[in-house]
Fold:
Amino acid sequence: ENIFDRSRMAPKTPIKNEPIDLSKQKGCTPERNPITPVKIIDRPQPDPWTPTANLKILVSAASPDMRDREKKKELFRPIENSEQSDTPDSLQYDIVDDSTVDEFEKQRPSRKQKSLGLLCQKFLARYPNYPLSTEKTTISLDEVASILGVERRRIYDIVNVLESLHLVSRVAKNQYCWHGRHNLSQTLKMLQEAGELQYGELMTSQHKDQDLEYKFGERKKETIPDSEDRPLLDFSEPDCSSATANSRKDKSLRIMSQKFVMLFLVSKTKIVTLDIAAKILIEETQDTVDHSKFKTKVRRLYDIANVLTSLGLIKKVHVTEERGRKPAFKWIGPVEFPEKTDELRGHSPTSDPLPGTQRGASVQYQTSVTGKQRFTRHASFNSAQPCEATRRKVSSEPNSPRQEKQDENCSKMINLAAVCRQKIEEDTGNSNTTLPLSLLPVPRDSDFCVNPLPQAVFPVVQADVPSFSLPVGISSQASHPSMPAASKTENGKPTLIPNQPFLCFPSSSLFMLCGGLQENNLSELLPTAADLGNRHAEAQAAVPPTVCQKRSSHKCSSPSAPVDDEEPAVKKQTLEHSFLPLSLVVPKNPSESPKAESSPGSGCSAAVHLETDRFDLASPAAPEAANKESIKPLDCQDQEKQSESKDPDEPPPGNEHISKENANQPFQPQYLYVQPTAGLSSVNFLFSANQPPGAISLAANQMPSLSVPCVMVPSAALASFPLVCSPSFTSSLSPAPDGSFSAAASTNFSMSSLASTTPVFISTTAIVTPKVSPTPSVDPQQPPHPALHLSPVLTRSCSAVKLDSPVCMGHPVTLLKLQQPSSAPLTPKSIRPAHHEAFFKTPGSLGDPVAWKKNEGNQTRNASSVQRRLEISSTSPD
DNA sequence: CACTCCCGCCAATTA
DNA sequence: TAATTGGCGGGAGTG
Structure:
């Protein structure tokens, strides 16, 4: 009801009997006072107050009961359906009201008065739709239950649905955090996308609902489980989830709710009949569905529908078909989301007139900046929370900031990945190509990270554009809400992102990821960087829109995370050997730096690890991410050595440290070049091995977030491209015009090693396209850019990515092997180990092996990816 | 009678 | 073991 205007928010309030305890509303905005007789109808009525309204008000004032009545009416009326009208309705509505009003007997609490819908309204009335970000409103189940005069059970029903839409998130036992609708659109967008993947075909293929039905029958099998069971939107971490995963927890209401919403979003008509929804939602095959199950499902759908209705997202209608009239619900919530995901999806980029990147970016940017809350950064996003399991465990503690970051990071990373991927495809022209990384957020996978990222968000780089760069989120957004500046993408120009360490070279499908060297500084830098970035961006025009943040850590992981380092390490190694044929190129500086010392091999391994591992992991999030500060050099020997000279352990105070280096010796970044292996055929990765301490770090715990400046180059590309990337990116990126940067820049080229391999150059300096005017120098002091961290998330995303990412749809993507513990072939099937399956299964799916298999196409792949995820998680624990 | 969907048992999970 | 969560379905209101 209140959805649209907050101004009107106040409403309903007083619940019938109970005295409300305002105190409990911790965060509530002051404004809300009770009572507005709101009648809002679906239609946006600018001015709520109609003559009738006044009347109503009076009435309500007079008696609470009356008020209730009114509410009910309001609530239900719209539902009552009618096909719809727009304005007229309201009028009628009012009229009707009056007439009918009397009928309602007030006293006895009719069933309706106890309806979930009404209850939900009351519930919602207590919290602002758009709470100030500053205030965190916590919801105590007990309190609410008592206030609303209902049993807790009912509150769960409401909260679960709200949680599925991320309007609230569970913080701890009995405690939920109210986020409001800030992220609703993002969530919906995600759902829509996810829905398209899952049900899209259905919908598209047939327009009619009826058809859908039929199709469903067939399709149901296919649609399966994996995705289904897990909360699509929950951006939880996969890993975690896997562990506990299946329990009923994530099973029903939440997921059902999301699926239900997805159906609406996917449906052209925006109308979904209950029975169809029920059928679709029933995991089992349709045929098997026993009636009882169906009935149960329907019951649940009503529950959900009531809540959604209260949220103003749907309304009840009836559709008449041959068979008669069937109950149905119509989506009345937002339909269009800011960006179309499609762009990402695959549509040929080329066709895009604008440089997608920019465009998308800009959009996103705006979005984020503006009203919507940056999905990325918004705290509320946290809701995204890590997998439930995890969450719950942690439940006692309120969301840690970390989580937030992670989420954000995840999303950013994903975006980035998506971009890259797309880019690759574009450049390559070959969609089929297997990409080493599939960064795209897959809906299924999305569980983990995906937040809100609307794919659309990703800026897609257009072919025309020479290069694009993605800014990686810098520090956690939290710290910088203002990231926006960075995001502008003004033109497609090259690449540098102010904050962002990643560079992608469009041209040859090369992607460069450049990390600012020092993470440490990031935090500090960011702000500055951002500013600079803006300017810079403007000046240069190439601004990356997305906000990828630098790193992400999983909340799960804590720095101290228990996770065994070793295992991951082991895995990594294994992987290395088996999978990655790496050729490491370590360019050393001719210069003095001792760092160079590291042997390529070592470097490689380290680097590799980083990459690989993180693919999944759940491990502890690298703490580093969390703080910019602490990232230390990884285990890389190289670094260590390097660091030794400096102080390995100590993360240099960043700036100084850096400055020194720059001054004295240019950085010499080492890059690891990963040859395309079977799996990776299309892309090569270059990671710089020697970074200043800050640059690459593997967290000790495996969580390594990788903050590495790295370059990914498609193998093909290598041949042709000369790519230059400066690890120290800073200069280029950072806006700082000062010339500090210069030193570093020119210095290192270590062509030699690279040369052997390819024509690619990586230089310390950032040399990018011409456009980027390298502003000469950045302050050495300010390490302009945060190093890029591949957050676990990212990694994970990579690994996790399904073969078919939604985005890719058609293109099978190969997962990075890195993740795989074993050298097994990449094929999806082979990949999944039996035991994994177990994890994978959802209650529903479990039973039906056949179904499982059936899912071949996408499903299978998905499954595999999922499994993979699971696997990892499972293994590590072991 | 068909829809809705409230109610609350009771199992799974957590604390 | 106690408390939370939440699946589930009987069966009661409503129209």
Observations:
- The radius of gyration of chain A is 27 Å.
- The first strand of chain A starts at residue 137 and ends at 140.
